[in-house]
Design a protein that fits this description.
The protein is mostly helical. It has four helices and no strands.
Length: 100
């Protein structure tokens, strides 16, 4: 493994974790009466995971907390969006600069 692969594999691992965080949040829809109770438990935990996963950014953690806590917003993939804004968008900007 060379040093250029390390950031790529680290960001890929973070993407997998982010998708898992979002999938766990959506699972509350599987059990209708249990869902809101699960969301109350999962909201602070998912916010903490996003906070630790993405460089202690309080804005994404807060967004994840609110998204998980409010009803009918679980379909928003907040952890995956946090990954995109940290890794995906910046990678696209670098590629556009190389083309010019």
């Amino acid at each position: 493994m060379n040093t250029q692969d390390v950031p790529s594999s680290r960001s890929s691992l973070k993407l997998v974790i982010a998708v898992l965080i979002d999938l766990i949040g959506v699972m509350s829809y599987l059990i209708p009466s249990f869902g809101e109770l699960f969301d109350a438990f999962w909201a602070p935990l998912s916010a903490l995971l996003v906070f630790l996963l993405f460089g202690k950014k309080l804005s994404w953690a807060s967004f994840t907390f609110i998204e998980e806590l409010f009803p009918f917003t679980d379909l928003i993939p907040s952890a995956t969006l946090a990954w995109y804004f940290q890794y995906g968008r910046s990678k696209g900007v670098k590629n556009r600069k190389e083309i010019k």
